[in-house]
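Protocol step 4 of 6: structure prediction from sequence.
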Amino acid sequence: MDRYWYGNGNAGVSDVLGLHLNEWKHTPDITFSPRLASKHNEPSYSSSINVSLLEGSGLINGSYVVKARCQNCSTWSGGSLNLQSASEPWIYAKGPSNSFRGDSPTDSIQRHVEYGRFTMNMIQAYGAAAVPTNVSTNSGAAEVGPPSSDNDYTAIAHAVFTCIAFVIMMPLGVIFLRILERVRWHWINELLALLVAFIGLVIGIYLSTTYNKSKSFNSAHQLIGILVILALFLQAWLGWHHHQVYKRIKRTTPYAPVHRFFGCFLILAGLANGAVGLDYAKNNSRILVYLVISIILVGLVATWVLFNRWWVRRGGRNGIHESSRYESPPQPFSSDVHLELVRGL
């Protein structure tokens, strides 16, 4: 059996969510977690809400049944239940399959994939402290419209922008320079890749503020991502500064090899951090596919560049390898120029 989280709560300013978590794949045990949520952030476990599970809770006849007693659920920080309402608004949600790994009530959860609304007659629901004897019938509650599907589009956008930058655009910049010999295309492409990667970082920072586990910005994925993006700005400056010095002295500079190898390192670091990010987001099923695609692309680009360099050295065509690209032109009064002038006379 797949593991999901289920939740329902009062649709007020701050929502009280009772999350029903199936602990393991093949057991009927559940974990009940009272939580508070504000706006579109992940609900946070609240130990101040006094809830206890009662006998008869669990997976019964294919349905999750929770019988619980809450001693202080009528009011909470940011909201309250209207016990005199005949149609009190409520919400419910379902999390993605296998989206959590533990059985602690404080475990982080992923964004819901399905949600909906219903109303409940609180006048009818309010009464003596007792568990309903019949939990298979509906009385005093009505669903408001059909359930809606949902997705974490912010996380998708973060992944798309960073993948475009590191998996496609940056390796393409290597092809522009080392194979197609288009320096202008190279720096334009790499600046655009830096912009796309920076947008991905900004989206990731916003995304981190919506989940409890990422608000402190101390995970490996977050730290590596921030450092790599900052290093990309240094990499861009190295390339620009090398080109400015080269135009002045007409020969290679010490910045050239640093720029080349540092750039390769940052591309590999960004690709590796993508796999770390998938694990951090609990998308483990996609890690292998991502790694295979990344390794194939990097392998193809590296093979193409090495073959091109070998072919140039064999005289296959003029190349842009360092020995020829940065060769200094003859000086105005060198012996070679003088002899040519004499012969011309």
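Step 5 (inspection) to follow. The helical segments are 122-125, 153-178, 183-208, 220-249, 255-280, 287-313, 322-325, 335-344.
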